[in-house]
């Protein structure tokens, strides 16, 4: 495995005639999406010996849409220049060395389809577009020429390598022309022969026509058609051959001197695995390359991705050789788009091919064998997973419908990637390897499918018969939990869990994937007897030991369950947005307790780490709620999508975010370590290499997977402010999601107005075109099927826009307005003429119901007379002859006057006329008159013409007919989208459930609830279901208040409070807390009220915070904490300059500022909070003692730190009230230590001045007996107090011109007020002691300094700090830490040397362990013995054991309570002694030096010891 960064790039663009090119010396470039990727090939690539000599070295970024053409300048001296064309309408010229645009033009008005840099003219770039326009652009003089040769679509163009003015152009319809650009594009030859798209044009590398012995083509069907304009002096007369490849499956070679074809090569159907289906039209792209030094040979692509080398010397035999014939699997598996030759620095002749199979292959022209393959990605990289069994096997889930498995350890091939597409057929969004079974890979897809692949076989995957309704978010292998589906018999040791977008977690049995999967919510509900709605799950993660399951939810909560029955033991309420990632820390580090750390990331940009050790060990009866994180990692500026712990370090985490970066954190110190910014998109996944501690893989929506090294990153934290705006710009230059190409509208109107808002989850980015071989065509709109026509003649613009096109009733322009309804185009009815308003006022005459007979009764007199005669004959004649019968049938209107049969005939004729004229309602009336109501209803129902009046008459035909008619009418109304009316009709026949179901299924929830509530029993489950469904819909749309009302209606008060709190602002949280309190959900109410108070705290609204805490009695203790915090913050604010203060709203009681802080606090508690009796104090104390906050680090945010310190101080004051002095001392010490650990010296001194203004003497008096358990704590507290005073004294001495103060008397007296110099730095020895980081104060000679009595007193008490016990303990702890660090580094070095050794593939002379030791031995590492002697492993182990034994011997009282760093205090004292000689006693100086000599042998203190002790 190589240790350099690596890129898995996006796929080269499809269906472009020239979008890859290469120049001598070994630089290859290919267009992929909106950029061009550059690959260095040959010795210059710097690849590790034994691996393929190529490396992806960069990207040309600047186009905003697909790059359609790419060409290098092939002129010596300017190989660094290249040109690109893009669908954004520009042609850009680039310098590949700087990767910047030199110049660009946007001359084309239409999509550019062909581009070439002239091989003869240094600065000429020729481009052509879909409308047939050609532009010649001269770079050096920024001049251009517009040529319009033919009104046809240009497919490809190639400039002649022999004559600077000739360009050959191939068109979509098969015509090829050769033009002379010096004569305004005059056509020299028009070459006819192909009858389909021209994909490629190649000029013969040698001029003249002697290189091939070709006779006039025998079977040339076209007669010679000279253009009629050929003159003797035309350059073409010298002759040259031209080869063209077309979609018509032929290659033709043309003679330019004769202007006609001389040879036709028909592509062979090669016998391939699986054979060729003759009924399926083979997909084909025919690209050519004419080798420079071999004019008698021609390379072409073929049907299935094969490459052929044609021998042109024997044209009659059509002889060809197949590339890569020596072994299976060398060829591309799908059509090849581009071929480009490359000559490396060591003069190897190579050929590079790009294909629809998403591989770039390199061929050796000498052997026709494939030298190497660069795989690529055709979609977002959604998921990364390293196999725990096959070390180094990385699975990548990609949006192109394929899974890639990358063997990152392969010695011979850096890009050893296998693709799996069978049975996938959708974006692969989740992956998870089986923890123990080789090659067993679970995958989940965008369409909800879950499957299992065996990556070692070629079998299709097993697919679970249970699908998720939406995208599969995550997969995890875990122990089987009791469920019906698994049965009691034989069980797999591990089952597969999948979490889908609809919020369910399913358990699949890997042995019976065709069986039904089990929804674990059922078990959770039963085990924990949960009544309220379970949250929507979005993430699942099992702890490595398989005993604990973490589920992340849409509301931001994380639930922790215990096997086997999934008992809920803990809920983490920290994120308040959808949880995207949960990761448990590994179990194999040097600190096993870290395996209880769980990191989580959500749609918020903050990552939280929680330590669940205490919860898991205590195994609580009822679930615990955690609201305080162990560590908070903030820095990202957009949502977190993925997390991964380093398997090589303790507590090191990498996160991937939508802000476009990946960040490595030291979680224990809350410190950002390094930030990777190589992607040009939003990151979706990240994985830490299991072998190399320095190496991380990340994938994003830029279609790339990057392998990068943490040690090579220049940034340490994510970009903020301007930098993140630049990254945003960089991301915006990515392609906008495009619909599939429709026919472009002829006018240059932008059609892509409102397609996606960028936040729309990649929905449109990768349009799933027809999948063949499992590969889905990528987002470039590169359809593999013919372009679909617009449906029903709807204009293309209407199809592209997402909204339905609604036109005004009156046409505004000349074109007729069209209204589109259900994809049918109907013209609006003509409006009545505007100029005759009175015409509207006249009553319209009712239509006749018998118009036919009425019109027949208004004919000529003769006809009417004839009617009378026929009628008389019919009625009175004894015998009817045939003539009279015929007359009667002819004159149907006479049925009115004869018998019923004739009347029916007349009615039938009338009815027919009504239907033909579009008046069904009149036809229905006639049928009614006949008495055939049932027939009317049936006919009307069949034709969809039932009306209210018809249905109203239906009861006449009987009850059952009426029921049937109403149901038919309801169905008809549904087709017309009149759902509410349909439901009303169903209600009229007492079909209440059907009416409710109809309204519900069409999202008329409000109406459905009204009906159900009015007509059903109150306890009917349908009503509850309606409320819950409507609530869920409203919640999804962000209408939280109405959703809460729904949940209250469904008697799910808990869910109502939760949904109200979802917005997370103070007002919503407060309302939610009040609601929870009203409905008796006390625990929820308390947690929401506390959250509300914390929100108010951020806004410094102290009044609001106290009001929120008042909502719940159990928060009395928190009110006291907030009160103390308010007073402390006020103190801090008063000390700030007025312009730096932020506006705060303080409570009225905080304004009385006289008296010591402790007295003020107790007075306010008594008066404002009614805290009078010891019982009340005891209750508050109990409440607060149940809350445990994690220890502080340098990176703990200051507001959070202050809150935690005030919590400890509140405990101290309450303990004092109760006269529990030992507890008070311990709480005070915790507050001081917290400020010390965070390096916040200012806060530490404030605590001292407010709570220990006179030192610790009064506490010692209160404790009295020396045997008190709190005596060691008091000792530590005193030591910290003296430590603080000592630093203040030293800093006052260190000022360049110190003012006279409590500490120093100087010869210069100044009238300005004295201020203490307070550090912003870090006072904790762990982060490098201040004595190491502070400049050593030098004594200005002109000042005469003296120390005040106060200072003398402080110096005399410093003896307390020189505790031999603590110095020894701290030294042992430092030794342990250093040895652990050295061991970790040795392991890393050893792994690196092993990797290097395996990749170099040769035996290493040195033992890797020795090499690692040598690299570690440095002058600083061993103090006096530092003579570059390596530390051996046994020596380190011995040191570690001894140090641990020493630590074990110390009494618990010494180990329990922290103590200031003794050596640090010694150094500060010696500094003061050197600045003010004579003021530090000789005895103390000697004691300090002895301690330094004895215990200063660790790295941190060596240099200082040498300074003071020599």
Residue fraction in strands: 15-25%
Number of helices in the DSSP assignment: 39
Largest sheet: 5 strands, mixed
Please report the distance between the alpha carbons of the first and last residues. 50 Å
Main sheet strand line-up: 42-43-44-45-49
What is the overall silhouette?
A: flat
Q: Gyration radius, to the nearest Å?
A: 43 Å
Beta strands, count:
61
**Which percent bin holds the helix content?**
25-40%
Structural category = alpha+beta
Average pLDDT: 81
Low-confidence stretches: 216-237, 741-841, 1298-1302, 1305-1344, 1401-1428
Describe the 3D structure.
- With 1510 residues, the protein is α+β, with helices and mostly antiparallel strands.
- It is built from 39 helices and 61 strands.
- The strands form 16 sheets. The chain has a five-stranded mixed β-sheet, with no helix packed on it.
- The longest helix is centred in the last third of the chain and has 37 residues, at 1364-1400.
- The protein is flat, with a radius of gyration of 43 Å.
- The relative contact order is 0.04.
List keywords for this structure.
single chain; 1510 residues; alpha+beta; 61 strands
Summarize the structure.
The chain is α+β, with helices and mostly antiparallel strands. It is built from 39 helices and 61 strands.
Topology:
Layout: E1 6-8, E2 20-23, E3 27-32, E4 35-41, E5 54-60, E6 67-72, E7 81-86, E8 91-95, E9 100-105, E10 112-117, E11 124-129, E12 133-138, E13 143-148, E14 154-159, E15 166-171, E16 176-180, E17 186-191, E18 198-203, E19 241-246, E20 250-255, E21 260-266, E22 288-289, E23 297-301, E24 307-311, E25 319-322, E26 336-343, E27 349-355, E28 359-364, E29 369-375, E30 381-386, E31 393-398, E32 403-407, E33 417-420, E34 428-433, E35 440-445, E36 450-454, E37 462-463, E38 472-478, E39 495-500, E40 505-508, E41 518-519, H1 520-527, E42 537-542, E43 548-553, E44 557-562, E45 567-573, E46 579-584, E47 597-602, E48 607-611, H2 613-618, E49 624-626, E50 631-633, E51 640-645, E52 652-657, E53 662-666, E54 671-676, E55 683-688, E56 695-700, E57 705-709, H3 722-732, H4 796-800, E58 819-821, E59 824-826, H5 837-841, H6 851-856, H7 861-876, H8 882-890, H9 900-916, H10 920-930, H11 933-943, H12 948-953, H13 959-975, H14 979-988, H15 992-1001, H16 1005-1015, H17 1021-1037, H18 1040-1049, H19 1053-1060, H20 1066-1078, H21 1082-1098, ...
């Amino acid at each position: 495995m190589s240790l350099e960064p690596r890129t898995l790039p996006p796929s080269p663009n499809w269906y472009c005639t020239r979008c890859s090119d290469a120049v001598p010396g070994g630089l290859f470039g290919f267009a992929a999406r909106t950029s061009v990727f550059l690959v260095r090939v040959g010795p210059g690539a710097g690849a590790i010996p034994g691996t393929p000599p190529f490396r992806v070295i960069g990207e040309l970024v600047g186009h905003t849409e697909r790059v359609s053409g790419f060409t290098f300048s092939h002129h010596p001296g300017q190989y660094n220049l290249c040109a690109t064309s893009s669908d954004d309408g520009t042609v850009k010229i680039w310098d590949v060395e700087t990767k910047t645009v030199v110049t660009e033009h946007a001359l084309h008005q239409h999509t550019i389809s062909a581009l070439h840099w002239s091989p003869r003219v240094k600065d000429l770039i020729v481009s052509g577009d879909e409308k047939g326009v050609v532009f010649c652009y001269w770079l050096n003089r920024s001049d251009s020429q517009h040529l319009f040769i033919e009104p046809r679509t240009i497919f490809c163009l190639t400039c002649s390598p022999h004559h600077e003015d000739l360009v050959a152009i191939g068109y979509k319809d098969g015509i090829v022309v050769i033009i002379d650009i010096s004569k305004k594009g005059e056509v020299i030859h028009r070459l006819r022969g192909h009858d389909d798209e021209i994909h490629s044009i190649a000029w013969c590398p040698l001029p003249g026509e002697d290189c091939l012995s070709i006779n006039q083509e025998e079977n040339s069907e076209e007669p010679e058609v000279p253009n009629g304009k050929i003159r003797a002096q035309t350059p073409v007369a010298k002759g040259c051959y031209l080869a063209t490849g077309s979609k018509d499956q032929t290659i033709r070679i043309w003679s330019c001197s004769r202007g006609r074809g001389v040879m036709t090569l028909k592509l062979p159907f090669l016998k391939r695995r699986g054979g060729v289906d003759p009924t399926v039209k083979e997909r084909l792209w025919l690209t050519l390359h004419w080798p420079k030094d071999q004019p008698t040979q021609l390379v072409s692509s073929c049907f299935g991705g094969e490459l052929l080398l044609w021998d042109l010397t024997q044209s009659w035999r059509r002889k060809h050789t197949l590339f890569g014939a020596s072994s299976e699997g060398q060829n591309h598996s799908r059509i090849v788009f581009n071929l480009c030759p490359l000559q490396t620095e060591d003069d190897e002749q190579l050929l590079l091919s790009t294909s629809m199979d998403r591989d770039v292959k390199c061929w050796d022209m000498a052997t026709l064998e494939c030298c190497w393959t660069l795989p690529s990605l055709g979609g977002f990289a959604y998921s990364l997973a390293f196999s725990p069994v096959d070390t180094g096997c990385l699975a990548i889930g990609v949006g192109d419908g394929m899974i890639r498995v990358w063997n990152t350890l392969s010695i011979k091939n850096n890009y050893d990637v296998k693709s799996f597409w069978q049975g996938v057929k959708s974006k692969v969004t989740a992956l998870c390897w089986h923890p123990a079974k080789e090659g067993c890979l679970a995958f989940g897809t965008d369409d909800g499918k879950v499957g299992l692949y065996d990556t070692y076989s070629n079998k299709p995957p097993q697919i679970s018969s249970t699908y998720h309704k939406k995208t599969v978010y995550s997969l995890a292998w875990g122990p089987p939990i009791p469920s019906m589906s698994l049965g009691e018999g034989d069980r797999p040791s591990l089952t597969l869990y999948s979490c889908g977008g609809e919020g369910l977690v399913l358990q699949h049995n890997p042995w019976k994937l065709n069986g039904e999967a089990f929804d674990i919510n059922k078990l959770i509900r039963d085990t924990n007897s949960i009544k309220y709605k379970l949250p929507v799950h979005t993430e699942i993660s099992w702890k490595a030991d398989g005993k604990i399951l973490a589920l992340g939810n849409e509301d931001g909560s994380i639930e922790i369950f215990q096997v086997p029955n999934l008992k809920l033991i803990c809920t983490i309420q920290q994120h308040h947005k959808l949880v995207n990632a949960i990761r448990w820390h590994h179990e194999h580090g040097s600190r096993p307790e870290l395996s209880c750390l769980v990191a989580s990331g959500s749609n918020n940009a903050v990552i939280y780490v929680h330590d669940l050790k205490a919860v898991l060990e205590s195994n609580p009866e009822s679930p615990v709620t955690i609201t305080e994180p162990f560590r908070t990692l903030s820095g990202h500026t957009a949502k977190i999508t993925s997390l991964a712990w380093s398997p090589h370090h303790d507590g090191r985490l990498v996160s991937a975010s939508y802000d476009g970066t990946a960040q490595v954190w030291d979680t224990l110190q809350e410190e950002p370590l390094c930030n990777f910014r190589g992607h040009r998109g939003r990151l979706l996944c990240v994985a830490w290499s299991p072998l190399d501690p320095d190496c991380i893989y990340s994938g994003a929506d830029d279609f790339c997977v990057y392998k990068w090294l943490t040690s090579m990153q220049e940034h340490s934290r994510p970009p903020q402010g301007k930098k993140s705006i630049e990254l945003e710009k960089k991301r915006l230059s990515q392609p906008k999601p495009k619909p599939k190409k429709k026919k472009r509208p002829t006018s240059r109107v932008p059609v892509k107005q409102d397609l996606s808002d960028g936040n729309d989850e990649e929905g449109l980015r990768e349009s799933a075109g027809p999948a063949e071989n499992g590969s889905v065509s990528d987002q470039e709109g590169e359809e593999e099927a013919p372009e679909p026509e617009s449906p029903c003649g709807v204009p293309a613009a209407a199809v592209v826009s997402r909204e339905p096109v609604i036109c005004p009733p009156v046409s505004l322009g000349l074109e007729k307005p069209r209204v589109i309804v259900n994809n049918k185009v109907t013209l609006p009815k003509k409006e009545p003429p505007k100029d005759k308003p009175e015409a509207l006022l006249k009553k319209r005459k009712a239509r006749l119901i018998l118009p036919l007979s009425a019109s027949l009764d208004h004919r000529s007199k003769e006809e009417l007379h004839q009617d009378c005669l026929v009628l008389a004959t019919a009625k009175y004649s004894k015998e009817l002859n045939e003539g009279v019968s015929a007359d009667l049938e002819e004159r149907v209107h006479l049925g009115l006057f004869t018998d019923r049969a004739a009347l029916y005939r007349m009615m039938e004729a009338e009815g027919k006329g009504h239907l033909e004229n579009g008046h069904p309602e009149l036809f229905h009336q006639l049928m009614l008159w006949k008495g055939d109501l049932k027939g009317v209803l049936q006919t009307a129902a069949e034709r969809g013409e039932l009306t209210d009046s018809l249905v109203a008459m239906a009861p006449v035909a009987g009850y059952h007919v009426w029921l049937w008619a109403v149901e038919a009418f309801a169905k008809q109304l549904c087709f017309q989208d009149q759902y509410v009316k349909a439901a009303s009709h169903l209600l009229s026949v007492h079909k209440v459930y059907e009416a409710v179901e109809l309204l519900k299924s069409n999202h008329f929830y409000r109406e459905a609830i009204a009906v159900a509530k009015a007509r059903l029993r109150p306890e009917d489950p349908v009503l509850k279901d309606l409320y819950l469904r409507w609530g869920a819909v409203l919640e999804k749309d962000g209408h939280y208040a109405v959703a809460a009302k729904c949940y209250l209606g469904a008697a799910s008060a808990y869910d109502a409070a939760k949904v109200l709190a979802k917005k997370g602002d103070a007002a919503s949280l407060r309302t939610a807390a009040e609601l929870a309190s009203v409905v008796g959900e006390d625990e929820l109410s308390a947690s929401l009220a506390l959250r509300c108070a914390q929100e108010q705290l951020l806004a410094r609204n102290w009044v609001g915070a106290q009001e929120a805490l008042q909502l719940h009695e159990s928060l009395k203790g928190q009110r006291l904490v907030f009160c103390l915090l308010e007073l402390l913050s006020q103190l801090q604010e008063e000390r700030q300059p007025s312009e730096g203060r932020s506006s705060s709203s303080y409570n009225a009681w905080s304004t009385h500022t006289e008296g010591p802080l402790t007295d003020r606090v107790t007075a306010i508690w008594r008066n404002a909070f009614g805290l009078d009796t010891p019982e009340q104090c005891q209750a508050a104390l109990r409440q607060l003692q149940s809350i445990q906050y994690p220890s502080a680090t340098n990176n703990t945010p200051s507001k959070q730190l202050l809150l935690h310190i005030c919590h400890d101080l509140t405990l101290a004051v309450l303990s004092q009230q109760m006269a529990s002095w030992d507890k008070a001392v311990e709480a005070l010490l915790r507050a001081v230590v917290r400020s010390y650990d965070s390096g916040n010296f200012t806060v530490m001194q404030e605590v001292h001045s407010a709570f220990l203004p006179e030192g610790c003497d009064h506490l010692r008096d209160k404790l009295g007996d020396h045997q008190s358990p709190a005596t060691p704590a008091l000792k530590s507290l005193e030591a910290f107090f003296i430590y603080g005073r000592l630093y203040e004294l030293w800093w006052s001495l260190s000022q360049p011109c110190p003012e006279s103060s409590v500490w120093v008397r100087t010869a210069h007296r100044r009238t300005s007020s004295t201020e203490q110099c307070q550090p912003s730095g870090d006072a904790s020895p762990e982060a490098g002691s201040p004595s190491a980081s502070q400049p050593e104060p030098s004594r200005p000679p002109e000042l005469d300094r003296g120390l005040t009595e106060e200072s003398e007193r402080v110096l005399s008490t410093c003896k307390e700090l020189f505790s031999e016990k603590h110095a020894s303990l701290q030294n042992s702890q430092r030794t342990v830490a250093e040895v652990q660090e050295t061991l970790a580094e040795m392991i890393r070095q050893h792994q690196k040397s092993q990797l290097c050794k395996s990749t170099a593939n040769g035996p290493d002379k040195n033992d890797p362990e020795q090499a690692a030791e040598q690299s570690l031995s440095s002058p600083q590492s061993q103090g006096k013995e530092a003579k570059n002697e390596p530390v051996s492993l046994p020596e380190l182990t011995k040191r570690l054991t001894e140090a641990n034994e020493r630590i074990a011997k110390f009494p618990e009282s010494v180990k329990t309570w922290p103590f200031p760093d003794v050596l640090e205090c010694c150094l500060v004292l010696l500094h003061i002694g050197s600045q003010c000689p004579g003021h530090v006693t000789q005895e103390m100086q000697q004691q300090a030096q002895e301690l330094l000599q004895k215990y200063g042998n660790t790295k941190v203190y060596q240099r200082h010891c040498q300074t003071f002790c020599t």
